[in-house]
């Protein structure tokens, strides 16, 4: 196979990069987690959003540095491999695969729930809609990075403005005495159990790293995309979280499925709720386009590095898209969606475990950063950030064994493949 057959084209511009970042980060986390966090810790939930926002700032500074200086389709796994070794890179790839396989299907399920609310359907409608949204995202990406980038740029800018408008309407016209509101500042510790779950809403920038090979100028464009998208997203998150906590009762059953739709329904009636449900479906569709883009690049890069079968690293001659890798991730995510609707795993568990795993992946980026930088001030910044990550990880509990098992399996797989390659080369030489 020629080198050209496994190379991605460099088509992403600054505007597309910012739109892609917003589409990847804003999605099911925003549409369902304000309600789930409010259910779990009441009025203290807003502090989880603020704490996670503060936690993610130094991580994004490090992340922007790595993406700008070490661009590649491998993303975080590429950073870790650059800093340490191929087995460590493979361990990170498997952790990413195990994380995407939980997080991205949960995005589709949330979209399916919003679609069911929009048309008044039940669980069967939600299942079909979840799969339909996932397939739609795959089809857009199948057409190539240029088409996908343009679609996401338009969607991200218009939907971000619409979400801010929704929050302002609810806070202005809604009854702010119905909800719990904001707990006193001295009760911020009550938000700790929701930190891991809420952090899922701050994930996505790690997915953005898988697209750096396709930027026209990654050293300039990647930090810009991270910075602008962060400021925009934080504003949207805090406004939505406040609107939910002030205008919805703590016991509202809709908090766990479609809180933003419930938000406007409480103010303007059922018709407005259906409108927001439709908007939620569009947001999820945009989010899934970016997420499946990133996941397919991970599979592509992992195959190119020898961990996954080689046919997954082929790039279509016309679209320059890794279409076999894309089809593979769509099939895997569809299977996880089916498991969820069979009752095998809840949406809350999918979001919680994926959220904590993404946080761990940020931690691995910090460790890679510490290994790659040389200046003492950068080292000190990295050590401070790593200490914050380790302290936060202490709140995740027994679920930490899942990412640990994934990493051990990935490293073992890579060593086995290397050993087989050496044996095969030895056999060929003796012949």
TrEMBL record:
Parts of the chain that traverse the membrane: 12-38, 44-67, 88-108, 114-142, 154-173, 188-210, 222-244, 275-295, 324-343, 349-370, 377-393
Q: How does it sit in the membrane?
A: Multi-pass membrane protein
Q: Which InterPro entries match?
A: AA/rel_permease1, APC_superfamily
Keyword Transmembrane on this protein?
yes
Q: Which organism is it from?
A: Lihuaxuella thermophila
Signal as a keyword of this entry, yes or no, is no
Put simply, this protein is called Amino acid efflux transporter
Gene3D superfamilies cross-referenced by the UniProt entry: Amino acid/polyamine transporter I
What Gene Ontology molecular function terms does this protein carry?
transmembrane transporter activity
What's the domain of life for this entry? Answer: Bacteria
Q: Name one GO cellular component term.
A: plasma membrane
Q: Where in the cell is it found?
A: Cell membrane
Q: Keywords in UniProt for this one?
A: Cell membrane, Membrane, Transmembrane, Transmembrane helix
- One Pfam family this sequence matches: AA_permease_2
């Amino acid at each position: 196979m020629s080198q050209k057959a496994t190379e991605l084209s460099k088509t992403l511009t600054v505007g597309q990069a910012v739109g892609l970042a917003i589409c990847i980060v804003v999605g099911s986390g925003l549409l369902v987690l304000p309600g789930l966090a409010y259910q779990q810790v009441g009025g203290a939930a807003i502090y989880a959003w603020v704490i996670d926002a503060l936690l993610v700032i130094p991580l994004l500074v490090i992340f922007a540095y790595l993406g700008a200086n070490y661009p590649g389709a491998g993303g975080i796994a590429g950073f870790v491999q650059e800093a340490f070794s191929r087995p460590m890179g493979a361990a990170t790839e498997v952790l990413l695969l195990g994380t995407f396989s939980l997080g991205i299907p949960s995005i589709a399920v949330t979209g399916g729930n919003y679609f069911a609310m929009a048309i008044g359907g039940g669980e069967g409608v939600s299942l079909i809609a979840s799969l339909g949204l996932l397939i739609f995202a795959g089809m857009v990406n199948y057409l190539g990075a240029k088409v996908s980038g343009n679609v996401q740029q338009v969607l991200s800018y218009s939907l971000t403005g619409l979400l801010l408008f929704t929050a302002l309407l609810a806070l202005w016209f809604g009854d702010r005495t119905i909800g719990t509101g904001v707990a006193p500042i001295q009760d911020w510790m009550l938000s700790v159990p929701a930190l891991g779950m809420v952090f899922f809403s701050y994930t996505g920038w790690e997915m953005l790293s898988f697209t750096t090979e396709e930027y026209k100028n990654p050293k300039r464009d990647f930090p810009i995309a991270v910075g602008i998208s962060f400021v925009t997203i934080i504003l949207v998150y805090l406004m939505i979280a406040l609107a939910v906590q002030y205008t919805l009762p703590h016991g509202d059953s809709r908090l766990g499925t479609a809180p933003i739709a419930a938000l406007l329904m409480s103010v303007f009636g059922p018709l407005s709720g259906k409108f927001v449900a439709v908007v939620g479906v569009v947001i999820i569709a945009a989010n899934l386009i970016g997420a499946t883009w990133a996941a397919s690049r991970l599979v592509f890069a992992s195959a190119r590095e020898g961990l996954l079968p080689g046919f997954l690293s082929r790039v279509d001659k016309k679209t320059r898209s890794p279409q076999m890798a894309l089809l593979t991730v769509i099939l895997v995510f569809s299977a996880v969606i089916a498991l969820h609707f069979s009752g095998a795993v809840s949406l809350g568990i999918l979001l919680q475990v994926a959220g904590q795993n993404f946080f761990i992946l940020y931690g691995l980026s910090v460790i890679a950063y510490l290994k790659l930088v040389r200046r003492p001030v950068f080292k000190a910044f990295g050590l401070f950030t790593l200490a914050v990550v380790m302290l936060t990880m202490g709140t995740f509990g027994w679920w930490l064994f899942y990412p640990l098992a994934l990493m051990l399996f990935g490293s073992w797989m890579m060593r086995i493949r290397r050993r087989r390659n050496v044996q095969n080369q030895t056999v060929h030489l003796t012949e």
